[in-house]
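Fold sample X.
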Amino acid sequence: MEVFNHDLESLFQQLGLPSDSDSICDFIRKHKLNEEENICTASFWSASQIQFLEEAKLQDADWVEHIDTLDSLLRIN
């Protein structure tokens, strides 16, 4: 069994986004989710990013914890 040590930076890398601290903070500042919005279908993702997020959630992959963290961060005012 493989053990992965994913973090928020590696999630951003997987999504093809800049993954340094400043870029992550900037992304979170510029993108917000409302209460009804699902992170997997937010309008700011590309088709491939949506596919990755949906598959990771569906498969309960190692990424889910960090996707959920990002989801929470995108909901903070």
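Fold sample Y, listed below.
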Amino acid sequence: MKFSVGEKVSLQVPLPYLRTSDSISMLRPPDLVSLDEIGVIIGIRTDDLVEVQFRRGNFLIPTERLQILDK
């Protein structure tokens, strides 16, 4: 699936941890983002990793764990 900046997404499945998108990444607990929370893609790092802005921070999320919400 192809993602682009500005798309709204949500998590499909829970993650074991969240990795921040700071210059020095930190691992954070997975309960900072719930499955029903809507995030916005603010950057594309690689083909399988995107930067998503959620209410509690910006995180690097694998694309296979995300679903695009209907426009």
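Sample Y note: The chain is about 0% helix and 45% strand.
Also: The two ends are 15 Å apart (CA to CA).
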